[in-house]
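User: I'm new to structure prediction. If I give you an amino acid sequence, what do you actually give back? Let's try with this one:
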Amino acid sequence: MILTYWRNTVSLQTFSLEKNIMSVFPYILGIESSCDDTSAAVICGTKILSNVIAEQKIHAEFGGVVPELASREHQQNIIPVVDTALKRARIDKKQLAAIACTNGPGLLGSLLVGSSFAKGLALSLNIPIIMVDHLQAHVLANFLDTENNCNKPEFPFLCLTVSGGHTLLLMVHDYFKMEVLGRTIDDAAGETFDKAAKILRLNYPGGPIIDKLARQGDPKKFKFSVAKLPDLNFSFSGLKTSFLYFVRDRLAENPNFIEENINDLAASIQFHIIESLTVKIEKALKTYKCTNIALSGGVAANSELRKRMQELGKKYNLRVTIPPLALTTDNAAMIACYGYFKFLQKEFAELNAVPYSSV
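Assistant: Good question. You get back a string of structure tokens that encode the predicted 3D arrangement of the chain. For your 359 residues, that looks like this:
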């Protein structure tokens, strides 16, 4: 397998920062708009001063994110969200040293709203704009100061990044060098949770609902087909199809099958998803040396995945780093955090930087 590396290619731009860099720890405004959450955050160094998230409820009735609606909602939300973030941080926008925003991957329309606003504000304040990779920012959420900030990762560490659109197993060598050991070749783990929830007639987003129902069910009650890839890549399309056909066939025999077995169905599909993830992590731990393991991404909020990660940590005598629940989903604090590390390296972007939709 050819290993790939993520490295951001950025251009340098000269800015007048005399009024903004007031200390070793500058104020960074982060803006996140890659999907359906509009978020803005202010950090000082790696300390979170504010982290505001405006969720878009409109997508629930469609059972998934509608890109055009998401873009329009971002346009309505971004000014009040940024204004609230600055007020909660108790700073004036003129105190900002830089603005970091998500440049991809994500929905292009949504990304354009966030990046265009960030560029305009940065230009008006004569401060640098920093473009941030959304997935790398998820990883670096583990470095934000929290109540458990003594448990930050030490390089190198193995990180599982799981969300609705991505599933990646990374070896993180430093803040800017992340080696991709494995990725999904089809569907993401988070998408599988949501599709399973839709099959079970649950509301969107379905991942948290399945997690809650699974706590009352038997994870070994039902068996589904799971892909067995020889490398560290993931595959969830077969599992998703197996679950769909299984439920369809049982409903043909008993129209009340879902209602009568909802907890066991939730527990069983969750078990198969989490097992697929942890098997690859354990395989990587036997091959690569690391000091600790970490989680990132929206699915990192799943209680069973967090539990299994802790068990792996104990088994291999490794530290386990898992962000607080508020920092697992899409948020601007993680964008600002990565922006802070890039700020220290003076990795600033040109104003003509173009967002990208995929890795």
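You can read the tokens as a compact description of the fold. Here is one thing that stands out. The domain at 149-322 is CATH 3.30.420.40 (Nucleotidyltransferase; domain 5).
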